[in-house]
Write a structure and sequence with these properties.
Largest sheet: 4 strands, mixed
Distance between the termini: 21 Å
Number of helices: 11
């Protein structure tokens, strides 16, 4: 998977998942995603008034990882569950790298970040439980998960959307004065504004969870919460209490590692995953940037 999947190191180790780094460009310098502290990125954005640029994995990135895995496990089949291909070149890069490597297969998850992570981890669990499953059977299962996932987010601060050219000065001023926070959901891999919340971030975060929970049956035995650098402890504590009040029994937190890509504009604050039409665990990610958005 790409580094932007936000699969934790612990889950990677547990299920044998390998991350391929995406890239971040700040000024004239390009570094691997995750190799620079998010606070430094935020600081540069605020100081210079510029946005970092991000790019997906190149064919050479995948080729390097595929060859390393093949050298270590020559009989292994490699499956790539890709970051939404409408948002990055990574899936195409993977297919280019797979040419001449008949042990590599890839598919588009149509999700990013923790949405992609959910698909990947559930598929890894399926493979562990069904070691003799064929590639077609595994991809069919992954598709069944993808069809039941809903992913969305809400920005804490619209300043970075404005800086990235996604919000006009008038719209920014109006939204700021009225304390409007848009809800952006991921549909077929694309980011679509679906709803607006008004008020404090605390109020909006609760409304966002209510909005997502109302969409279908949820398994209340567990909720996973994720955050990035800059999210206040007060908000985290409140969301945990609120999740328990809604009936969730087990509440866990995960720090989202890749903040730079979100600043560059595709994924600000809170994101929520759930399975449509069937009961499933709800996983909410609430993340913000220091002085900006996640």
């Amino acid at each position: 998977v790409e580094s932007g999947s936000d699969v934790t190191p612990e889950l990677c180790e547990r299920y044998g998942i390998v991350r391929v780094p995406m890239h971040v460009t700040i000024g004239d310098e390009t570094v691997e995603d995750g190799s620079i502290d998010p606070l430094e990125i935020y600081s540069r954005c605020n100081e210079f008034g510029v946005m970092p640029k991000t790019s997906g994995c190149a064919p050479a990135d995948f080729a390097h990882v595929y060859d390393r895995i093949h050298a270590e496990q020559p009989d292994a089949t490699i499956l790539h569950l890709a970051y939404s291909e409408v948002t990055t070149c990574s899936h195409q890069s993977s297919k280019i790298a797979a040419k001449g490597r008949d042990y590599v297969f890839s598919m588009d998850t149509r999700f990013v970040s923790v949405g992609q992570s959910l698909v990947v981890v559930e598929t890894a669990k399926y493979i562990e439980a069904h070691p003799d499953a064929t590639v077609d059977e595994i991809f069919a299962f992954a598709n069944s998960v993808m069809d039941r996932v809903l992913l969305g987010f809400v920005p804490t601060d619209l300043a970075f959307l404005k800086a990235g050219g996604r919000l006009s000065n008038v719209a920014f001023l109006g939204a700021h004065l009225l304390k409007i926070k848009p809800c952006i959901e991921v549909t077929d891999g694309k980011f679509v504004a679906t709803k607006k919340f008004r008020g404090s971030m605390l109020k909006c975060a609760r409304a966002f969870i209510d909005h997502m929970v109302a969409k279908g049956e949820i398994d209340y035995s567990h909720i996973g919460l994720a955050y990035s650098v800059g999210l206040s402890q007060e908000l985290r504590d409140d969301m945990e209490v609120y999740a328990h009040d809604l009936g969730f029994k087990d509440v866990t937190w995960t720090q989202v590692a890749v903040s730079s890509r979100a600043i560059a504009a595709r994924r600000p604050l809170a994101r929520c995953l759930r399975l449509r039409r069937k009961v499933w665990r709800l996983s909410i990610s609430i993340a913000t940037a220091a002085g900006g958005l996640r």
